Amino acid sequence: xxxxxxxxxxxxxxxxxxxxxxxxxxxxxxxxxxxxxxxxxxxxxxxxxxxxxxxxxxxxxxxxxxxxxxxxxxxxxxxxxxxxxxxxxxxxxxxxxxxxxxxxxxxxxxxxxxxxxxxxxxxxxxxxxxxxxxxxxxxxxxxxxxxxxxxxxxxxxxxxxxxxxxxxxxxxxxxxxxxxxxxxxxxxxxxxxxxxxxxxxxxxxxxxxxx
Length: 211
Ligand code: ADP
Ligand code: MG
Prior knowledge:
This protein is mainly α. The chain has nine helices and no strands. It binds adenosine-5'-diphosphate (ADP) and magnesium ion.
């Protein structure tokens, strides 16, 4: 099957996510300095470096096992809200991942995003990572339903995430530390929506050219 997603593809995805977060670490932390506690970039960078190391040490080949290793490492090593939330994302995605083609990947991503929503009790418009991830899943599902190949659909998902990230700027935060600022949280881009966009960009890059 042209679109089949293997463990190595998912490992490449996480490696690329780690690379982008490392590159954007200071940007993420500055965004969090404006409406939070200035740790989002350093938190995630540390956790993803640990996840990449764990994947190298354990070399899981099964796709679900790759995602589970990432989940447990992030939950263990990332402090703050985003560690458990990204951990939940990868754990739920792992549990939902069926025999891997594009539709299976899309279903796993959707399950991961629903896991974040359940764990964080956030809704669309609350100015969180969900505001990037929800539109990303919608764009992915729509592109696949239109018969697009997985690489094209993942590019659409990354673009959906970026639009959702940009839309967080005028929002007033209703969840997480930024919500303590009330109206003063408006006018700032949400750090978690920014890192979540990197997650989708990494998927697009790492899984490109598969079909
Ligand atoms: P902390 O706020 O504990 O310092 P981070 O700085 O690592 O954690 O992550 C902050 C990001 O986490 C926010 O920008 C937001 O996107 C996300 N976030 C915070 N709380 C929630 C929640 N309840 N549901 C979904 N996402 C959340
Ligand atoms: Mg923070």
